[in-house]
Amino acid sequence: MKALVLKAFNAPYELIEVEKPIAEKGQVLVKVKASGVNPLDLKIMREQAAHAQIKLPAILGVDLAGVVEAIGVGVSQFKVGDEVYGMVGGVSDLQGSLAEYVAVDEDLLALKPLNLTFREAATIPLVFITAWEALVEKANVQSGKTVLIHGGAGGVGHMAVQIALAKGALVYTTVEPGRDQLIAQYGAIAIDYKSLSAEAYIEAYSNGEGFDIVLDTVGGSVLDDSFKASRRDTGHVVSILGWGTHSLAPLSFRGATYSGVFTLYPLLSGNNKAHHGRVLQQAKQLVEAGKLKTWVDSELYSFTSTDRAYEAIDMRKNNGKVVIDI
């Protein structure tokens, strides 16, 4: 099969012929139709993602949507011809989705939403699972809660906004000027973080009381601001990028709590992989119920233009999630 292989960091992919994988016990062989591109891929290429534990040579690509071509012994959830999607590899020694075929543990997959194309479905797995773990599993988002999402027009952010709204929360999100219409379409309230300080928008949008749940998808100083924005005593802050050094004093003085999210753990450890498949089943239900919409960049990319896809992300020229057609 054809695959894009990374043989050295800070070097381009090589499009070469490699051996087609075989579905081992508990695995599904998927013919890849679309590979979702994430900033993580670019960080891995630049040797800036030690947490991904990548081993070269490697086939990157975390997300996919495709068709089941064969099943291994013991597979019970899927059959040949099923359209599936999932967060499957591209970290550690797991083959990723930038190839014509990939053998995947069946627990990592779910049936693709019926009303989505392969391109649309390939944008969901990593960002949805991350947002779901943060809001639903860590913060217990529910009706009546006020939620502040930092970076609501980003990959994880736009999924988080929709999940919180689907759960009945009142959602605010910091966005860059010009993304207000996107946020309004979802039904959230946009906050222009470039013109308002943290103290100013906390006062303006929560009467100075703070928010029940604050989700940080940006990291750095935004996490520090998130501590300030949590509601006193009952507030909960969740971060997907809480990797720096931060003072917990603002959080502690408010009597609030904090959680971190590390979505790659099941892939890296091999533990609790079925959790990913179950979360993607939740995404399927929301999509088919019209409560979750994808946001796909209109530019078309293939094996031979992957460098342009990464450039679009790196230069922030994309308008939505970038997808590579396989």
Biggest pleated-sheet summary: 6 strands, antiparallel
> How do the helices and strands follow one another from N- to C-terminus?
EEEHEEEEHHEHEHEHEHEHEHHHE
Give the total of beta strands. 14
Count of discrete alpha- or pi-helical segments spanning 4 or more residues: 11
Helix content: 25-40%
Task: Please describe what this structure looks like.
With 326 residues, this protein is of the alpha/beta class. The chain contains eleven helices and 14 strands. It has helices spanning 39-45, 118-121, 125-138, 155-166, 180-186, 198-206, 221-229, 249-254, 265-269, 274-288, 306-314, and strands at 2-5, 14-17, 27-36, 63-71, 83-87, 101-105, 109-111, 146-150, 170-175, 189-192, 213-216, 236-239, 257-260, 323-325. Strands 3, 4, 5, 6, 7 and 14 form a six-stranded antiparallel sheet that branches. It has a six-stranded parallel sheet with strand order 10-9-8-11-12-13, sandwiched between helices. α3 crosses α10. The radius of gyration is 20 Å and the shape is globular. The mean pLDDT is 96.
